[in-house]
Amino acid sequence: MNKKEVEELIRFVSKSGVSEVSLEQKDFKITIKNAPRVAETTIVHAPPVTVPAAMPMAAPVVPQVAVPVAAAAPAAAAPANDESKYHVVKSPMIGTFYRTPAPDKPNFVNVGDEVKQGQVVCIIEAMKLFNEIESDISGRIVKVLVDNATPVEYDQPLFLIDPS
């Protein structure tokens, strides 16, 4: 079973709602457990309940806040335009992001480093499996968007690469 097939299996388990899947082949065995989904759902529903309750109290303040927000909008748009010319390397799975192959080793890549297509830029640990994540484009690392040893979600941006 290759890396792509494992990633597809993980996506299937997370989307299907099943709590556990085991797969065994002649020299390969994998078990995927998907229990924390209930906790995530509870967290996702908590903020919308809090926000509408705060809106009626803040209604008189909204006109005063609207002017600074409108002024800040063009400033926020400028960095988005700058970053739009960069290629985004995204997480192909849910797991823990690591910039180094081991705690005592140097980072795979740093800001300013030139990378080639297929070069390993980080590792994502998912269920005790360490998956090497490769750059899908050649270029220069402009920004690392995730801190070392932090959880990442599927399709979460990890790096910005300048392809020019």
Please provide a brief summary of the model.
With about 160 residues, the chain is α+β, with helices and mostly antiparallel strands. Helices cover about 35% and strands about 30% of the residues. The chain is built from three helices and ten strands, in the order αββααββββββββ.
Keywords:
single chain; 3 helices; four-stranded antiparallel sheet; 30% strand; OB fold (Dihydrolipoamide Acetyltransferase, E2P); alpha+beta; 164 residues
Structure commentary:
β6 and β7 form a beta hairpin. With about 160 residues, the protein is α+β, with helices and mostly antiparallel strands. The protein is elongated and about 45 Å long. The two termini are about 35 Å apart. About 20% of the residues have low confidence. It is built from three helices and ten strands. It folds into two domains: about 80 residues, no CATH class; about 80 residues, Beta Barrel (OB fold (Dihydrolipoamide Acetyltransferase, E2P)).
